[in-house]
Design brief:
Helix content of chain B: under 10%
Oligomer: heterodimer
Strand content of chain B: over 45%
Order of helices and strands of chain B: EEEEEEEEEEE
Largest sheet of chain B: 7 strands, mixed
Structural class of chain B: mainly beta
Strand content of chain A: over 45%
Number of helices of chain A: 0
Order of helices and strands of chain A: EEEEEEEEEEE
Shape of chain B: globular
Shape of chain A: globular
Distance between the termini of chain A: 36 Å
Structural class of chain A: mainly beta
Radius of gyration of chain A: 13 Å
Largest interface: A-B, 21 and 19 residues
């Protein structure tokens, strides 16, 4: 199985700050990488699929990048409503999720 | 409007079998895949398995011996059955829709149902 390692596990940032979350795969996943946002008590919500395609209705401050084994989610200007846990998911093999990055406001 | 809703018992005895139903609306099970994903309280997400539009299934290798996914297309329902439950199976169980690979991102999710394994 393909293992996904997210970093950092926890991140504290200020409103307006640019934030980057990382996800590393144990092998090349050919850009089949998605990002999900999960707020407390809610189901995950798709933000980005295929590394860099913004899902319908997702604000443009979210962007994705990467290739091979290394991927990133960037929030261009952090907003209070972005407080959540963020998971990456690879779909090149059987789907596997990263352990998540918990994002809080400083 | 695409919707998925999980239902089932909130409490299951250890060693018994879990049965969950995912009732969908706004799309056809014969045109989309449905997955089950679970999340132990306060922990990460685990993909459990898939039933594809054609009815074929695949399972997480860690759960394969205990897990079965089936469906009733006439009722727009997908079923999960997992036997020999233990405390570590306590989790929120989600069903989620995807297209066929490589368009198999999880755009739509149910609200999830909490299953507690305890005597």
């Amino acid at each position: 199985d393909i293992e996904m390692t997210q970093s950092p596990s926890f991140l504290s940032a200020s409103v307006g700050e640019r934030v980057t979350l990382s996800c590393k795969a144990s092998q090349n996943i050919n850009k089949y990488l998605d990002w999900y946002q999960q707020k407390l008590g809610k189901a995950p919500k798709l933000l980005i699929y295929n590394t860099n395609t913004l899902h319908t209705g997702i604000p443009s401050r979210f962007s994705g990048s990467g290739s091979g084994t290394d991927y990133a989610l960037t929030i261009g200007s952090l907003q209070p409503e972005d407080v959540a846990t963020y998971f990456c998911l690879q779909r090149d093999g059987w789907p596997t999720f990263g352990a998540g990055t918990k994002l809080e406001l400083k | 409007q695409v919707q998925l809703k999980e239902s089932g018992p909130g409490l299951v005895q250890p060693s018994e079998t879990l049965s969950l139903t995912c009732t969908v609306s706004g799309f056809s099970l014969t045109s989309n895949s449905v997955h089950w994903v679970r999340q132990p309280p306060g922990k990460g997400l685990e993909w459990m398995g898939i039933i594809r539009s054609g009815g074929s299934t695949d399972y997480n290798s860690a759960l394969k011996s205990r897990l079965s996914i089936s469906r009733d297309t006439s009722k727009s329902q997908v079923f999960l059955k997992m036997n020999s439950l233990q405390a570590e199976d306590t989790a929120i169980y989600y069903c989620t829709r995807s297209g066929a690979w490589p368009r198999n991102w999880f755009a739509y999710w149910g609200q999830g149902t909490l299953v507690t394994v305890s005597s």
